[in-house]
Design brief:
Blueprint: E1 5-10, H1 20-34, E2 41-46, E3 62-69, E4 76-81, H2 96-107, E5 114-120, H3 132-150, H4 154-164
Parallel strand pairs: 1-2, 1-3, 3-5
Antiparallel strand pairs: 4-5
């Protein structure tokens, strides 16, 4: 059975605050198990988004993309996104909007409603540890995820996006 919500978490644990995504993914996975919510969510962690991630959107009710951002307002932003080409909003090559656009092109249908949670990072150097600021921002993002995962509906997520978008 396909989980209704797919959560893509991208980041490189070896590049300072780019580890925000993988760290958050681990915390979220544990939290979902403790709350008995795991069956409603599929977590997909990767270094960056790829065209192949389009296949993971099939049959979903909601998609969430999580990443660190160098110029994101602290602690994080949460907003709804739409299919588009050539938009760069994270530190990775293929932005979430482009994944949605590839879905439209390959599936001939609208993708599931999608959102981005971008968490502010300060340093992204190879070999650097997670910064203190990133740790704080990670806590705020996890609190928001707890709220979202307790109400995994489009209406609830759209309402949350209106109050946290930049």
């Amino acid at each position: 059975m396909i989980a209704p919500v797919v959560i893509f978490v991208v980041g490189n644990p070896s590049r300072g605050d780019d580890a925000i995504g993988p760290e958050l993914c681990g915390q979220l996975e544990k939290w979902l198990k403790n709350e008995s919510l795991s069956a409603q969510f599929e977590l997909i962690e990767d270094f960056q988004l790829q065209i192949e991630h389009v296949l993971d959107l099939q049959g979903r009710q909601i998609a969430l993309f999580i990443d660190a951002g160098a110029h994101t307002p602290a602690p994080c932003t949460f907003r709804r996104i739409a299919p588009a080409t050539g938009i760069a909003c994270t530190t990775h090559e293929l932005p979430p909007e482009a994944v949605l656009q590839v879905y439209v092109q390959t599936e001939g249908a609208d993708p599931p409603p999608a959102f981005v949670l971008c968490i502010r990072g300060e340093q992204f150097e190879l070999g650097a540890a997670l910064s203190a600021a990133a740790e704080n921002n990670l806590g705020a993002a996890m609190a928001l995820l707890n709220e979202l995962c307790r109400q995994p509906t489009l209406a609830a997520w759209e309402k949350a996006s209106l109050t946290t978008a930049a």
